[in-house]
Design brief:
428 residues, alpha+beta, PmbA/TldD fold, 2 domains, 6-stranded mixed β-sheet, 22 strands
Length: 428
Amino acid sequence: MMNEMLLEILRTYATDGYEVTDVETEGWEFYFIGHKLDQSRAKNTRHTWVSVYKKSGDGAFLGKASGEIAPTATRDEAEEMVKKLLFQASLVKNPYYELVKPSPAAPQEVANVPSPAEMAADFLQVVRNLPETANEDVNSYEIFVNRKKKHFVNSEGVDVASEYPSSMLEVVVNARKDGEEIELYRNYTSGSCGAKELAEDLSKTLVVGRDRLLAEPTPVNGDFPVVFTTNAALELYSYFTGRLSTNMIYQQISDWLPGKDVMEGANGDRFTIRSVRYLPNSSKNAAYDGEGSPIRDETFLEAGIVKANFGSRQFSWYLGLTDAFQPGNLVVEGGTRSEEELREGTYLELVEFSDFQVDVLSGDIASEIRLGYLFENGKVRIISGGSVSGNMREALKEMRASREGRQYDNYVVPALTRIERLTITAAV
């Protein structure tokens, strides 16, 4: 239930605009050492965040300031916080924009949000059934499962609520060989448990631990075909989604406006990116974005051509997009080949990195290689060390992907992505 006392204070003092986001969380937490439960706890929390707005320059500017107000705050404490935020907002001189107004079409809510108990049972079953061996096993893991209820109100009359699951699993895997031991850490976010994908990934992690102890120094030096089959691919596709945002377009970092062919002259696949209101097991299945705009199914990029943009209310308003929103779930499609076809010939499959990054501004790709597989002349060599680098502008010219997709929380991307030329630096 929204705090009526707080709303009364905001109506009195924040006359130029306000937003309130109230989130109630029912959750369970489990902490395991090996497969033995060390401790657990249940939680019920509530957080309330407030944003206030202040006009200046005869209405030409609009400042914003945000903060959290404890649900237990007294009236005097809440008034003091609101006055403090209003002063901070008065110092900000952003060009004026309007807040979100009520929408006549409400998104369809997702029925039957699973309970924390149901989600926890699914996670436990996955971890307990992993194919551990005497040399590769689970060191420890932590499970966090939550059912969230989010209520958003603003000064324009928007009053919307949404309920959705949100979970996290942290796992530490150990691998040993001839007195040497390594440790691998994995962190998975999701809504409810995507058991199939989670089991596959954790099983591969056990293999990664084993192979890290068998790897030889990376022998490749120079341009080479590279295949991505892990969540590192999310970084590749973040180059697309980042440049489609109104935030980057308004700041003239990107020119990906409707009608632009962003893959003009490319010989690879032409990708499509779309928002979906609901994605099974996603942690971003809220019906509204953080500013109260309804989230809907929409295509932003179709076969390499920009169809629409998305982003925050502020920057979307500056571009004249009054119905833009911030999507929760994104699906990337457009791959035209099977995984088997993309694995033909010579290539390097990279599966473990120090910190794989793609700079959305410049397109630069860079990371150190922790584990990869070199496929050459019908043989496979396990490699480690050295680095991979390149640039997405060049990579797009010959970037191909599988028809099959793979979900990572609120993203679905091709299960396999192949870039024909990235620079590999051999291990010293």
